[in-house]
Write a structure and sequence with these properties.
468 residues, alpha+beta, six-stranded antiparallel barrel, 27% helix, 34% strand, rod-shaped
Length: 468
C-alpha cells in the first residue's frame, strides 16, 4: 500500500474530465444547456444546426479521445449578426489476472539453511529465481512501450472499456506484488551474490577430485596414487555469465536510472489510461450574437492543430431585437378633391366633392422592437415615417409580425398620422356655395389626420460577419 501511495506521489493523479449533462446533437431547440457532445464514431449524428438562448455559455464535449495524442482543444468561431480492437498481442498471450501473493516474504531460490554443502540442483534453482526477477524488471521497464502500442496511434479510440480492461490485465501481470523496480533490482543483486557463491563452490569441489588405482593403456599399466583430475571447463559457466552481464547493467548507475525512468513512465501511462474518461472539453464561448459558426478543434501534444471538425452553425434566441425595414405603406385616408359648381348662366356658385379613392399610398421606413422567443416568427412594436409628394412627413405606429429567413419580411398595422389636404370652408356655406362672389377659388388646408394603416416592409440590414 505504501508503494502505491509513493507511486501516486511520483506521478500524480490523472485528470478526470466530467462530461455530465451532455446534449444529444439532434435536438432543435436546447434550453438551459451548455454542452454539445461529439462522438467521432457516429458522425451521422454530428450537429448541423442548433438553437440556444442568447447568452448561453457553450462547450463541446469530444468523446473517445486518445489522451496520449491530444493535449487540449479549442473553438474557432465566426459570428453573424443580425473502435478499438483487441490487439493480436493480447489474444495470443491470453493475459489473465494473477492472484496477488500477500505473503511477500516467501523465499524463492535455494534455501541457504537447507544444507551445509551445495549441489548442481542448488545452482539451477537459484538461477531460475534470478531469471524470474530479471524477467520482472524487463517487463516493468517495457511496460510503457507496451501500453503505448496497445492504445495505438489513432486520435480516437472506439472501445475505451476494452482498452481499460486490457491495460488492467497487463498491469496485474507486470506488477504482481506492486513492488517498485528499484526493489526488484535489489533482489536481483541478492540473488546474484547467492548464485556466485554456489557457482564458486561447485567449481571448487570439482577441481578437488583425486583418484587412486591402476590403469592399463595399450598393454602398458600405470599406478595412480591420489592423482588430481584437471578440467578447463567450468560448470554452468555460460549461465553464470548471463547473470553477470545482467547485474553489470544494474550496477551501472546511468543504465539503472534509465530503467527506473522507463518503469515510472509506464506507471504514468497506466494511471493516465485508468483514470481518464477519454473525453476532451473545449473552452467555453458565450453566444451573444444572432448566429455563430463554431468549429471545434483538438490540439496535439506538439501544440499544433490535430483534428478540425466540421463547422456548426448555432443561432440564438431570447431578448429584444431592434430592426429596421422599408417598404410600402397604405393608410385608409386620402386628400379632399373638390371641383367648381356652376349655375345655368355658367357662373361658379360653389363646389362639389369629386369621387376619389379613400387610400393613401406611400413608401417609408419603420423601426422595430421584437421579442425573440426562438420561433421562426416574431412579434413586436414598430414606428416609422414616410414622405409624401409634397415632402411632408407621415407618421406610423403599431404592432408587427416578422417571419421568413432572419425575420426579414415584416407585416405591420396600426395607427398613422397622415398629412392630408382638407377643403378650406372659410368662403363656403353649409351647402358648399360661395359666400363672396369675389373669391371663387378652391383652397385646401394641410392638416394631420389619424387613420388605420397597413404596411409590408423588408429588412434593410444585411448580416455582418466577424471571426473570433
Amino acid at each position: 500500500m505504501r508503494t502505491k501511495i509513493l507511486l501516486l506521489i511520483m506521478i500524480g493523479l490523472g485528470k478526470i474530465i466530467s462530461a455530465q449533462g451532455c446534449i444529444d446533437s439532434n435536438h432543435d431547440v436546447l434550453k438551459n444547456s451548455s454542452q454539445i457532445c461529439i462522438n467521432p464514431f457516429d458522425m451521422d449524428d454530428y450537429p448541423k444546426g442548433i438553437k440556444f438562448k442568447k447568452g448561453t455559455t457553450l462547450k463541446f464535449v469530444i468523446k473517445n479521445v486518445n489522451p496520449l495524442k491530444v493535449k487540449g482543444s479549442n473553438i474557432v468561431s465566426k459570428v453573424e449578426n443580425f473502435q478499438f480492437e483487441v490487439p493480436k498481442l493480447i489474444q495470443d498471450n491470453n493475459i489473465t489476472s494473477k492472484e496477488k501473493d500477500s505473503n511477500k516474504d516467501n523465499q524463492k531460490g535455494r534455501n541457504p539453511a537447507s544444507t551445509s554443502f551445495v549441489t548442481k540442483d542448488d545452482f539451477i534453482e537459484e538461477y531460475k529465481n534470478f531469471l524470474e526477477i530479471m524477467s520482472v524488471i524487463e517487463k516493468k521497464a517495457n511496460f510503457n512501450n507496451l501500453l503505448i502500442n496497445l492504445i495505438g496511434d489513432n486520435v480516437f479510440i472506439k472501445n475505451t472499456d476494452v482498452l481499460k480492461n486490457n491495460v488492467e490485465k497487463i498491469y496485474e501481470s507486470t506488477y504482481d506484488l506492486d513492488d517498485l523496480i528499484s526493489q526488484d533490482m535489489l533482489e536481483l543483486q541478492k540473488s546474484y551474490l547467492e548464485l556466485k557463491n554456489i557457482y564458486d563452490e561447485i567449481n571448487k569441489a570439482s577441481s578437488d577430485i583425486s583418484i587412486s588405482g591402476t590403469i592399463s593403456i595399450n598393454g602398458s599399466t600405470a599406478k595412480l596414487d591420489n592423482t588430481k583430475l584437471v578440467t578447463n571447463k567450468l560448470m554452468y559457466e555460460e549461465e553464470f555469465n548471463v547473470a553477470k552481464k545482467a547485474v553489470e547493467i544494474i550496477n551501472d548507475e546511468k543504465k539503472k536510472n534509465d530503467l527506473i525512468i522507463k518503469a515510472i513512465g509506464g506507471i504514468n501511462t497506466y494511471q493516465l489510461i485508468k483514470n481518464n474518461d477519454f473525453t476532451e472539453i473545449t473552452n467555453a464561448i458565450q453566444l451573444n450574437d444572432d448566429a455563430t459558426i463554431v468549429t471545434p478543434i483538438l490540439i496535439g501534444k506538439d501544440d499544433k492543430e490535430l483534428v478540425k471538425f466540421n463547422p456548426i452553425k448555432i443561432t440564438t434566441y431570447g431578448g429584444i431585437k431592434v430592426n429596421f425595414s422599408s417598404g410600402y405603406m397604405l393608410s385608409f385616408i386620402s386628400n379632399d378633391d373638390y371641383h367648381l359648381k356652376y349655375n345655368n348662366e355658367g357662373g361658379a356658385v360653389g363646389v362639389y366633392k369629386n369621387e376619389n379613392s379613400i387610400l393613401n399610398h406611400a413608401l417609408g421606413a419603420l423601426a422595430h422592437v421584437f421579442w425573440d422567443e426562438g420561433k421562426t416568427y416574431m412579434f413586436g412594436l414598430s414606428s416609422g415615417i414616410s414622405v409624401n409628394t409634397d415632402a411632408k412627413l407621415n407618421f406610423y405606429a403599431g404592432p408587427s409580425f416578422a417571419f421568413l429567413e432572419k425575420n426579414r419580411l415584416i407585416f405591420t398595422g396600426g395607427l398613422s398620422f397622415v398629412n392630408v389636404k382638407r377643403l378650406n370652408r372659410n368662403n363656403l356655406t353649409s351647402n358648399d356655395e360661395f359666400i363672396s362672389p369675389n373669391h371663387l377659388d378652391i383652397t385646401y388646408s394641410e392638416i394631420y389626420k389619424p387613420a388605420v394603416f397597413f404596411s409590408v416592409t423588408y429588412n434593410l440590414f444585411s448580416k455582418s460577419d466577424e471571426a473570433k
